[in-house]
Design a protein that fits this description.
The protein is mainly beta. It contains no helices and 26 strands. The strands form 6 sheets. The protein has a 5-stranded antiparallel sheet with strand order 1-13-12-11-10, with no helix packed on it. A 5-stranded antiparallel sheet has the order 2-5-4-3-26, with no helix packed on it. It has a 4-stranded antiparallel sheet with strand order 6-7-8-9, with no helix packed on it. A hairpin with a 5-residue loop joins strand 22 and strand 23. The radius of gyration is 18 Å and the shape is globular.
Length: 338
């Protein structure tokens, strides 16, 4: 694999602030200005006693061969990269990138964020269709579809118990689904009107990058979603977010604020700020926190080493050749999962 090294710009102890954090909900996936639908009347926290209809598929039927494909290499157990590209999810080998070795199209309508749980199930957010689709490892058809209270879902994350958390682009809520259930268990309101990148730390706390008309930042919720803490980090237009085993936060800034920022635990100013060769979207890291991967609006996937330092550069991994407006999400089959 040929490695391309791009220049970086590093600032220490410099806070990045702005008076307005634009929304991407209606304008996704180009990250432009959008308008969220009016928030409904749900309280900040609740347990739903009478959930609405959902879909749970128990049979894949005969559609797999018609709506996607998998090569033997995609089923070999090697580490994989999943890339969300509009109407499809492409599958690549983590080693050497190259050409796709699989493609999922059934149930994919507006692919946005991706995540993989410890059993290698794939979760895809369809932001226009207001659904999250779960695909079993090696499956081309969704085995579970989540719908309840989802409004423009952008990103999702699964905890060690199998509970699914989804961030709404419209309204800024985080919706939780219990393991194995398509019924919404509870939700919590972020400080924003749009919830973007999500991740969990090793204690089960949920981190949410949010946006609203007056700014953007990061909230931290307790594992039961009962307690919310604003971390006091000032951002512009955040998107992907991850938390490492040490508690460091990495967050993507999109549009004119184009950057990857690193915040140490308890700090509100970035220890490090790198300028990527393209606008980054979703982040993922390998299981041992060795390598950080990022998708981009240019359709490329990049990597860089961890722990991130002043001498880091972005290495080109693969190009999707997207016919869509950039790639909004990616995930690793061997990604870090607390």
């Amino acid at each position: 694999m040929k490695t391309l090294v791009f220049p970086i710009i590093v600032f220490f102890g410099a806070a990045l602030t702005a008076s307005c954090a634009q929304s991407q909900y209606d304008a996704a996936p180009s990250n432009g200005i959008g308008q969220q639908p009016a928030s409904d009347s749900m309280p900040a926290l609740t347990t739903y006693a009478s959930p609405g209809p959902g879909t749970n598929l128990t049979s894949t039927g005969g559609r797999a061969a018609e709506r996607g494909w998998l090569s033997p290499a995609a089923l070999s157990g090697q580490p994989l990269i999943y890339v969300a590209d509009g109407q499809r999810v492409l599958i690549y080998p983590e080693e050497n990138g190259g050409s796709p070795i699989g493609e999922i199209t059934n149930g994919v309508t507006s692919a946005y964020g991706l995540c993989v749980d410890r059993y290698r199930n794939i979760y895809l957010t369809n932001w226009r269709n207001n659904t999250v689709e779960m695909y079993p490892h090696g499956g081309l058809n969704p085995s579970r579809i989540y719908k309840e209270h989802l409004r423009g879902p952008l990103y999702a994350v699964v905890d060690r118990r199998g509970n699914l958390f989804v961030g709404n682009g419209g309204g800024g809520e985080v919706i939780e689904f219990s393991a194995g259930s398509i019924k919404a268990r509870r939700h919590a309101q972020s400080d924003g009107s749009e919830a973007d990148g999500l991740d969990l730390d090793r204690h089960g706390n949920l981190y949410v990058a949010y946006r609203n008309s007056s700014g953007a930042g990061i909230d931290r919720f307790s594992p039961d979603l009962q307690h919310r803490e604003n971390l006091g980090i000032s951002l512009v237009q955040p998107q992907g977010l991850i938390v490492t085993h040490s508690g460091a936060i990495f967050v993507v800034e999109t549009d004119y604020a184009n950057a990857l920022e690193k915040f140490l635990p308890g700090e509100t100013k970035p220890e490090l700020r790198l300028v990527p060769p393209n606008t980054l979207t979703e982040l993922a890291r390998t299981r041992v926190d060795k390598t950080l991967y990022a998708s981009s609006l240019g359709g490329a996937v990049y990597s860089t080493g961890l722990p991130l330092g002043v001498d880091n550069s972005f290495n080109f991994v693969l190009s999707v050749g997207s016919s869509y407006s950039g790639v909004q999400g990616m995930a690793l089959s061997n990604g870090q999962r607390f």
